[in-house]
Amino acid sequence: MRLTLKTDYALRTLLFLGQQQALVSIAQIAQAHGISEHHLIKVVHALGRQGFIDTLRGKGGGIRLAPAALQATVGQIVRAMEDDLNLVACFGPQSDDNRCLLTGGCRLQTVLHSALQAFMDELDGHTLADLLGAAAPAADAGHAQTISISKLQPAAPVATARARQPGGSKPAKPTATPARPKRRPKKPNTGQEPDGEHTP
User: Whole-model pTM?
Assistant: First the structure.
């Protein structure tokens, strides 16, 4: 299955608008993606009718993403833009120009129905907001490593800053505390003088 250019341009336009903070012009989008501005005008008009974008006319006007568009699924956008999701002719209404001898007992039709449903289910599983979130490139994604919180160590305590002197910018030097003289142990009073004589 291949999407039409209309749907392709619609998705590109919505993604571009989702990355902008201000109003933009159709010319800016066309130049950014290198696509036909004439063709893009029709796409933007269709997006506006479906409510995916807001249009402001006049001087300083432009287009921007409608807030509700962020919750739209890719499947919803594709269905809104595609005129025909029939994979084969027999999926559409039968007419004289659309006849198949296998219609009614064809197992291929059932398989193709299932394949289309699986395709749309996948698109319905992703919103425009999801695509915009994934679009932001991760910094150095090739060398990104997962860090386990349990392995993180607490930071070392920060040393207390020294007090500053009132008149200067340099920290005050700590004042040296004079060393106390060592005390000699007292000799027991035996009643004798140092020369060994008894005191009266």
Answer: 0.61
